[in-house]
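Why this split exists: single-chain examples teach little about how molecules sit against one another. For that reason, every record in the complexes split bundles all components of an assembly together and asks for one structure covering all of them. Below is a record exactly as it appears in the raw files.
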Amino acid sequence: MKQEILQLQQEMKKNGVDFYLIPTSDYHHSEYISNYFKCREYLSGFTGSAGTLLVTLSDAYLWTDGRYFLQAEQELAGSGITLMRDGMADVPTISDFLKTHIQAGQTLGFDGRLYTTSFIIALQRKLSAKKVQIKYNLDLPHKIWTDCPPLSSEPVYHFPESYAGTPVSEKLDGYRNYLKKYRADCQLLNGLMDIAWLFNLRGHDVACTPVFLAYAYISTKEAILFVQDGVLTNEAKEHLLTNHVTVQSYETFYEFVKNIQKKRILVDHSDLNYCCYQALSNTNVLLRCAKWTTMEKIVKSEIEIENTKNCHIRDGVYMTKFMYWLKHTIKERTLSELEVANYIDNLRLSDRLALDLSFETISAYGSNAAIVHYSASVESNAVVEPKGMLLVDSGGQYLDGTTDITRTFILGPITDEEKLCYTTTCRSMLHLANAKFLSGCRGSNLDCLAREPMWELGIDFRHGTGHGVGHVLSVHEGPNNFRYLVNQNNLDAVLLPGMVTTDEPGIYQTGKFGIRIENELLCKKWKRNEYGQFLEFEYLTYVPIDLDGIDVTLMNKQEKSWLNDYHKRVYDIISPHLIYEEKEWLKTYTRPI
Amino acid sequence: MKQEILQLQQEMKKNGVDFYLIPTSDYHHSEYISNYFKCREYLSGFTGSAGTLLVTLSDAYLWTDGRYFLQAEQELAGSGITLMRDGMADVPTISDFLKTHIQAGQTLGFDGRLYTTSFIIALQRKLSAKKVQIKYNLDLPHKIWTDCPPLSSEPVYHFPESYAGTPVSEKLDGYRNYLKKYRADCQLLNGLMDIAWLFNLRGHDVACTPVFLAYAYISTKEAILFVQDGVLTNEAKEHLLTNHVTVQSYETFYEFVKNIQKKRILVDHSDLNYCCYQALSNTNVLLRCAKWTTMEKIVKSEIEIENTKNCHIRDGVYMTKFMYWLKHTIKERTLSELEVANYIDNLRLSDRLALDLSFETISAYGSNAAIVHYSASVESNAVVEPKGMLLVDSGGQYLDGTTDITRTFILGPITDEEKLCYTTTCRSMLHLANAKFLSGCRGSNLDCLAREPMWELGIDFRHGTGHGVGHVLSVHEGPNNFRYLVNQNNLDAVLLPGMVTTDEPGIYQTGKFGIRIENELLCKKWKRNEYGQFLEFEYLTYVPIDLDGIDVTLMNKQEKSWLNDYHKRVYDIISPHLIYEEKEWLKTYTRPI
């Protein structure tokens, strides 16, 4: 068995723990985790972005999903850790595995700060018949990992109102009205996007997400921000002072939580980590309720919308220039996936308002594009040739907004099947983007508009049609999205004017090719009449959809006019920012079909 | 104040009740109620099919919905009862009204047998701050209503396996496996459709629904049917005996319930009435869980499907003959709405397997059709002329199945607007009917396929696009349906092969016209491939859609081919059952466009 696992098992014995869980998470359930939190990677040797390690006194198991089966096999070889292929028919889930293997009276340990309350409550329900002991206050990995890098503590700066839109004072008033509505005293926030949005601050502690490590406490009288010592810029300090926000040290948060007593507290089980929940639950009245910020931050203000539109124009110019470069260069020489990714990344990062990419660029050529979460590495880096298709999914974090766009480019000859799939994907994107709908609709009501052109052919894509997009926060931000599989516990939000959602259908043929076309859509008001308020979408993304992939005979009149209208707007918006040759080329690639 | 209300107030005083509720319901929450249960009508004088009467010691209030505002105004005139127009912005709901008006310590009374557990629990939650006393065992109206007709007690007969499909023994085994899965001892059934389905029995105690008054108790060891004395036919008795079903008297049910002790009982809050719930709750462990029959009865067996298809052919022949008669007769003379309704009703009721209509036929001419729940009466009975449109929504209960169909007929010249709306309604129906979709979809995922052609024009219809249809039970039977407004507590079922759902979009222009086109759709398997099991719909309804209303220029190629394919099937299936002249006429009305 791997040395680090043996050491952990020693610690488990010392602490009277029979089973110990190490997820891939930080104290804030962030999508990307910083180095300090990479305990699962340190202990197991597996470097993938998702997975959970379960260690018993004699064994160790690593659960990860289909994206990482191959990589995990290689990285776990010789470690003594058993790979559990999540989602395979014969592989139990972690909670089912625990249910089977844990004995009455045995102890399950974990660091409760790494888990949401809802996850642990569901797990406890699963194990309820077993009378299992739970120790949730155990951070064992950091006892072993002696050379663990420190917590990221990048500067935290003021995100001015000209970008943020709404003043902090107004947001805090909103939060307090929400507390009053539920006759509550306070709410604690764990989520970094919520905190950055609420206080109009930004930072750089999480990859591709301009947020910073923090907790917050909002009461009817106080607002306390818990951040690491020394990270706030002077401007940020002054901004908080002006808004009557108290600053306390990140390290003192759990001590603070312990001392909260006899309060009526709003608790969002999907946000609050389990340690906080436990600390609060006995001495307070907990009212289960979504945090106020969830809906507030996802419905963009007018200023945020204006800013977002601006950044999308610049982003569209970079993508169009990139497309011009790609279509011309591939006629002259081969490229590599990474070279292509670097080209578009450099264009974005040279923007005067650029903060970061909004996620690691996916540049996937040929059959690599059939792997939905493909990430080119130095090893996999495929040669890009003047044939077939290249899928590029990328985006930027700018001071004025966050972008996410996918285009699939035709680099040379493609087959009839590829053309059918490309055209169908384009039709799918257009059908959803052009929906008119009544207020009250959810994304799950509209998702089939994108899927129906594919379902008619017996084709599907195994991912959501779209996700909510945050504003200079996370590029993946709910609770709005487009998908069809919902249940009582997992219903998507009603669509509201001001929400931004991606529209990104795709077709993936394993071993052959992958196609995805993604535009961002802004929800806005359309007609109002005796039937109520109708809504519609407005494109935020303006970049040509490669006409070399379109078989015009497969599109009906309405679909052609949707595509032509879109391309006319692309030309009108993007061409003023291009040089002559690019402009002439763009005219061809936005021509009516 | 009306005499009957004064008498009720006397009874309330005697029983220490400050507020008394009288809903429109029976002990089984049936859609139609028989005469014994019409207490609200007796006390208030209001004869509509929906409404709740609330009586205080000094006042009385009647809530009813938009269909009945006018009628209620007239019928309540001089009664001293205040009309509460449900759904109007300034009118509180009953529970909100109670919350405002009832004082701490006051007593609310009602007959708990008339309310589902979920309704009363929600009401109690609403009133929780008020410390209201609840008396749920009070049937006061029947103390006053001395000449109340007795309970309906029509014969209950055996519904043979050749029609029912699955033997009772198999159904009871299924129920017992369900109980075991939840480690439960038993479940009580209140719902008449569930009971009729489970025991393969039918009766005639509820209008348009071939069911009978009954309760049932299913345990791991016993099955007890509570029916009125003397209603079972000899054959039915023998059938129950063979299947080890004990029969007890309907009147002894609540005594039986009181004696259930120390059991683990599955309780479906939407089915079990509040009296049962109360009787069980202290002395047993209640496990909240849907009754097994809900999903089982709505997914038709192969024999039920075959029977359903047969009855739809005969029903389609009657509707087609009716259409032939209507289109010819209107050229010769005027008709009336009731005459039209009688014509189609007589055709159906002459069927050798006819049991009843499946609901009161809606025959609505011109602007009457804009009233969604219009019901022609001797007073309203409009003259039907050779111009405009006539909407007929009707169906039959046959021994081999239940039908529901709407057609809107063009009787003479119509306007361009009417043609646009007619064609759009037809396109809406076709889009939903021709959907292909992956297993896991709910009706709420697909509803927008029907609405999108209307929403694009800024038009909507204010009813669901479709409802589940029972098998020789209720024509309105969930939990499958097509609608887009869902929430966590009210999510529609996942669509499964064997479910039957109507597809009935419409357009209604107040004061002008109403259009609805309704076909029944059977959900069935389509392709299965690497993406999973695809599903599709098959039409059950085969009746021409009046081509005189269609503007061909408004339909695309795919829509025209959908309509032509449908009409070809109509001709192939229906024409063999017609006489020569009808057949020739049908050829024209099913011609390709």
